[in-house]
Amino acid sequence: MGDMIVRIMGEGQVRLAESHLTELNKLDDVLLQELEKGDGPGFRRTLEALLAKVRELGEPLPDDSLEPSELILPSQDATLEEVRDLLRDDGLIPG
Prior knowledge:
The structure is a single chain. The chain is α+β, with helices and mostly antiparallel strands. The protein has one domain (3-86). It has 3 helices and 4 strands. A 4-stranded mixed β-sheet has the order 3-2-1-4, covered by helices on one side. Helix 1 packs antiparallel against helix 2 (40-57). It is globular and about 35 Å long. The mean pLDDT is 91.
């Protein structure tokens, strides 16, 4: 497994080992359930936890780096509607 470039909208990019995707997918699955239920407070907590985990596990790229992003995540203050627009069938994170 290699690395992937993840962009957090409004923040920048991090290099993340693909081996972390399973862990992140667990949070993504919870986020998807909360979106479907319209659970605003739960959605906010889970989105913040997902982004915090990406920041913790990823290695920030320099601000002037323009690597193509394989994955784009919403900003921490994104609304339910904005995140719905970013979703694929399997959530924000593929797999």
